[in-house]
Every structure is written in structure tokens, then in C-alpha cells.
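Have a think about this chain, C-alpha cells included, and walk me through the fold.
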Amino acid sequence: MHPAPSPSGHMGIPWRRLAVAAAALLGLATVVTAVQSYGPTRSYASSRTLTVATWNMCGVRQWGCAPTGSWAEKRTQLSHLATRAGARVVFLQETCDAELESVRRELGGSWHTAFHAYSERDRAGHTTPIRCATPGAGTAGFAILAAYRLSAVTTVAAQQPTAGVRRGILCATVAAHDLRVCTAHLSPRHSDAVHPEWEFRDDQLKALARAGAARRTVYGGDLNVNPPGSRNPFSWVWPAGPYTTHPECDQTSGSSRAGRATHVSGHKFDYLFTGLPRAGCTVRDTGRSDHFALLLKVRTG
């Protein structure tokens, strides 16, 4: 955790959701009824492969997600990721545990989940889980949905706001592919209600990169930061490892730090990194979130 440099923009939940609300007013966020591919698939190689996806579902209705569709529509799109798009491991952010369990049951007994709840810490230090506002949806959190048994499920310690929403990092082992997977949802700027100037993404990214240090790992999620580069004043939060030892799904060369947008605002906030050979990368607009799904096909054999 470090004091942030002089800010040049706002990337917290309100900022992100304003983009969704504006899109909804224009009819952009609610009229899409089918899964659409956003841009071409980037292919790299072919062999025994596994598709890993990450998707911020915008399923916590009270976080400005009402314009992005109902939970029934979101369940359908998540099921499509696992079936039509072929994702066998899916990192999820802003999901709800009861709704996620419903999808898991529909997919069948071979599917498994690991879930970690978001919590809200008040100024007095009291912490409570965050409930999804949709009736019956359950607790809000981030998760891993997989077509294989998950083992060695752990959360990764990282700095969190002293008061405000606490997110985190969740890892599990997919023994069927001898693969460690880690999903993260990092704190956007101004997350701390007591110290809004404090920056948490640097510590959280370091913790995530350490958790994904082994070659046979895929890690990523909604990192709430743009790629490093001359146009990003917050490039300093990025540690070594991502983009170098572990290329990103949409990275086209060793020196590239660009990638297709994964948010309706035109920014890239969602990432998948791995030390294994990549076989393809797809950005998929589900039409039911302010984030697009990112799908990485990785060679595991």
C-alpha cells in the first residue's frame, strides 16, 4: 500500500458504472441478446489445450449493474462461456454464490466451484459480507468455476482498504492439467473511505504475480488498471513478471503492452497471464455486463 501519485482520472466502481449507465441510455447495454465476438481471435499455436476465461459479470446489482441485464440472462451467458465458447476454467468477479451454484448444477456433476465473498469494513473495524441485492442471489464475491475438481484452494494475502470494500485473490489447483490457477479482483482507486489517496494495486499485483510465479500457472482477472505504458500514469503499480516471464493473453510481442478493450468504456481492465505456451486469445462481448469476457487457450501438454 502506497500513497498514489497525483491522480489524472477516477477508476473506482462509480466511474466504471457511469459508463454502463450512459450506454444503457443509448440502448447499447441492454439490447444485445446474443453472444457476440469482439474482434478476431488471436491464435499462437496448437497442441493439447485448455481454455481459461475471466469475466466480471456485473452481478452485484447495487453496484450500478441493474442496466446490464437480469441474473437469468447472466446465467445463460455464463453457461454459454462454458459450453459454446469451450471455457473449462472460468474466473468470475462480481458474481453471487447462489446464482453461481445454480449454473454449476446445470452444467453437471463434473463441474466445481471455489468462491470467496467480498466484505465491507466500516470505520470502526467491523467487517461484514456483502449480500447481492437480487432476491435469492446470495452473497457477492469472486470465484473459480471449473470442469475439473479443484484442490489446494487458498486465498492470497494482500493489502486491503482499512475501510471500504475488500476484494482479493483466490487460487486453486486443477490437477487434471497439472495447473495452478489464480483469479483476482483488485481494489480500484479511492477504495479506502478513510484514506482515499492510498494506492493498493501495487501491493495486490505483486501478491498476484508471486502466487502465479510458477510456469504452470494461469492468473488474472479484473485488475482495475490499464496496461503499463507511456499513456498510463499508474504504470508504476505493475511489478516484474506480468508481460515478461508471463505473457498476457492478448500480448502480440515481447515488447507489446497493448491489448483489446475489455470494458465498455474502451479500457482494458481484464487480464490472463501464463508462462505456458498460448494457443489463442478471444475477447467476447456477452452483452450482459460492462466487462467483456477474455478467453485464453493455453497449451498444457
Notes: Residues 4-39 have pLDDT under 50 and may be disordered. Residues 228 and 234 are 7 Å apart (CA to CA).
